[in-house]
Amino acid sequence: MVRKSEVNGEVKAPPSKSYTHRALFAGALSRRARIYSPLISDDTLATAFSCKKSGSIFLRKGDAAIVGGLRKFGGYYNCMNSGTTLRILISLAAALGDHSILDGDESLRNRPNKELCEAVKKLGAEVIGGEEFKAPLKIRGRIKAGEVEISGKSSQFVTSLLFALPLVGDSVVRVRDLKSKPYVDVTLHVLEESNVKVEVEGNEYHVYDSEYKLREFQVPPDFSSISYLIAAGVVGGKVSIKNVVDSRQGDKVIVDLVREMGGRVEWRNDEIVAEKSELEGIEFDASNNPDLVPTIAVLAAVAKGKTRIYNAEHLRLKETDRITTICENLRRLGVDVKCGEGEIVVEGKGFREFKGVVDSFGDHRIAMAFSVLGLLGEVRILKAECVSVSYPKFFQDLKKLGADVNAG
Ligand SMILES: O=C(O)C1=C[C@@H](OP(=O)(O)O)[C@@H](O)[C@H](O)C1
Ligand SMILES: C=C(OP(=O)(O)O)C(=O)O
């Protein structure tokens, strides 16, 4: 439960989930790598345990994780709630594997992997799964180098192939309609650091036979997580986020988006400061930044006027169908909202009290985004513990800033 309160103070930016997954996989595929400031959360532990199960070491040394020496995939993998872990494993298990079963929790078992599994089959492995290749998936045999075309309805399909193909030989991946493109840029960044050669020509990715040689990697902060802290600042007082280093994450655009809404946000050197401001509605194209949608949707409820979030079809394929869960929860708090297939339109009425019970449906981003509205009234969040998926210290940090946060 988050109750009416003012936030004021500073917190350290939490580490990036997307970079941590990639650095752990790339490090595990290398001889021995030291990953500095990895995010330790449910999702990234799913990746770490998958690597460990496949023969990689996984040691903690101070603020670093040491990984390396992964030999071969095989047996049962529980990817828990993590789409990134499952998707990257699909191609890796088919490149270095022998009879793997990839599974996850109820939410992950509901997320389709069709286009990726079909590409992996085309490259020579056998994949058996549920309708639309939902988990559990059985993977047998191995992929060979080759050329494939794939839909980019999830960028994780592309990331998966880019991670695995260098292990089997020179290949080409042709991508149609790529959504969430900045996440592929994050993948390319980590592959670059790992001595893996990929050349990009338009929508074609030329992958070269390479050996993973990651030695060290400093995980940068997570701009999707930072978005909730910025939102708390503009809604509830003044928040300073420390240790903000730049990286290739698309979600850093949150600073510009909140400014466009009229929010006072400054990013100077390694600090972002967000201060309470009157907000107004905007038009937001969600193609590249799906994970910012819950944040923008709750800010839209506090803003004056209409906010239209569009090109958001891919939000239906996340931990929950986020178009539905965002709309349902905004309505529970009395917000005027309309939802289309890939669109959310919010009619904001400016600062007011938001009171009610919100169901996160176990989706971390829904829990974190809606907590922010509690600062203006009283919002009880069901299954709020799911924040452990990407930002385990979220409620601790909110409390540290002065928010009235209680269990229950
Ligand atoms: O590769 C990644 O780290 C991610 C890619 C995005 O998913 P899609 O590419 O499926 O949109 C994003 O929503 C997810 O939180 C993390
Ligand atoms: C969709 C997300 O992650 P994943 O796909 O890894 O489950 C997310 O963190 O919002």
From TrEMBL:
It is found in: Cytoplasm. Keywords: Amino-acid biosynthesis, Aromatic amino acid biosynthesis, Cytoplasm, Transferase. Residues 5-398 form the Enolpyruvate transferase domain. Its EC number is 2.5.1.19. It is an enzyme of class 2 (transferase). The active site is at D291. It comes from the Archaea. SUPFAM superfamilies: EPT/RTPC-like (SSF55205). Pathway: Metabolic intermediate biosynthesis; chorismate biosynthesis; chorismate from D-erythrose 4-phosphate and phosphoenolpyruvate: step 6/7. Phosphoenolpyruvate binds at K17, G83, R111, Q156, R322, R365. 3-phosphoshikimate binds at K17, S18, R22, S154, S155, Q156, S180, D291, K318. One of its GO terms (molecular function) is 3-phosphoshikimate 1-carboxyvinyltransferase activity. PROSITE patterns: EPSP_SYNTHASE_2. GO terms for biological process: amino acid biosynthetic process; aromatic amino acid family biosynthetic process; chorismate biosynthetic process. It catalyses: 3-phosphoshikimate + phosphoenolpyruvate = 5-O-(1-carboxyvinyl)-3-phosphoshikimate + phosphate. One of its GO terms (cellular component) is cytoplasm. HAMAP family: EPSP_synth. Belongs to the EPSP synthase family. Monomer. NCBIfam families: aroA. Catalyzes the transfer of the enolpyruvyl moiety of phosphoenolpyruvate (PEP) to the 5-hydroxyl of shikimate-3-phosphate (S3P) to produce enolpyruvyl shikimate-3-phosphate and inorganic phosphate. This is 3-phosphoshikimate 1-carboxyvinyltransferase. It comes from Ferroglobus placidus (strain DSM 10642 / AEDII12DO).
